[in-house]
Amino acid sequence: LKVNHKYRPLLVKAHSGPTSMADNGLDLETQFWTSRGWTVLNVNYGGSTGFGRKYRDRLKSHWGEVDSFDCCAAVNCLINMDIVDKDLIAIIGSSAGGFTALSCLISSDIFSVAACKYPVVDLLDMHSKTHRFEQGYLDYLIGPYDNNHQLYKDRSPINNVSKINCPVILFQGLKDKIVSPNETKKLFYLLKNRNIPVEMHCFDNEGHGFNNFSTKVKVLSETEIFFRKNLSL
Fold first, then answer.
1. Would you say 74 and 105 are in contact if contact means Cβ atoms under 8 Å apart?
2. How many helices (H) and strands (E) does the chain have?
């Protein structure tokens, strides 16, 4: 890749959780990208823990809005600082981070390409299948289900595919009990039917979160190939 800072591509990482946080410790995935000439922006958007309760509560009832707004605002800041090329911006996310990444694509045209691993695409489906540990989590992030059924539909990426206009690569474990593989496949076909460049890679022996080293290598490799192709790098 070109090393001139004005043309360095930017990779935005939307952490999962979504009320966890991105830290500054060693991350081999980040090293993968920086060693290949990318600038990596790991966003602690509103709702991230570690910055006080008031900051975390910015996300209350606004998941899919505050997180995506903050990711886009961070990118615009780097563009205005003349650190990155506005035409070479990618975003990645997994699980809840995939939901945030897709929400960014829906609300903004600032991203040129995206990669999502087992993304949350349907909040209605998530509400019905989430494990006991996170029961009530969506009540905080979206609102109590009984009074906000329409909001769950409106915030779901699967119901906003018409607003996604950039290439997307998807990765899904077929043993996933949290995000249904069928939902990710549905997203794939909806994008494909709109002639959006899209790929989907499935892994027979993976669940929600990829554990096999070979899978992790495959995901990084395929993502880099997809990004290079669609950003003409």
1. no
2. 9, 6
Tokens for 119, please give them.
């993304």
Which residue type is seen at 6?
A: K
What would the mean pLDDT of 184-191 be, rounded to a whole number? 97
Q: What is the mean pLDDT of residues 26-41?
A: 91
Share of the chain above pLDDT 70, in %: 94
Q: How far apart are CA 71 and CA 56, in angstroms?
A: 15
Q: Which segments of 63-180 does DSSP mark as H helices, in order?
A: 66-80, 96-107, 123-129, 137-141, 149-155
**Contact between residue 4 and residue 33 where contact means Cβ atoms under 8 Å apart:** no
The answer to whether the beta carbons of residues 107 and 28 sit under 8 Å apart is no
Strand ranges inside the chain, DSSP E: 10-14, 39-43, 89-94, 113-117, 168-173, 198-203
Is the pLDDT assigned to residue 128 strictly greater than 60? yes
Phi, psi (5° rounding) for residue 230? -85, -10
SS3 212: coil
pLDDT band at 6 (very low <50, low <70, confident <90, very high): low
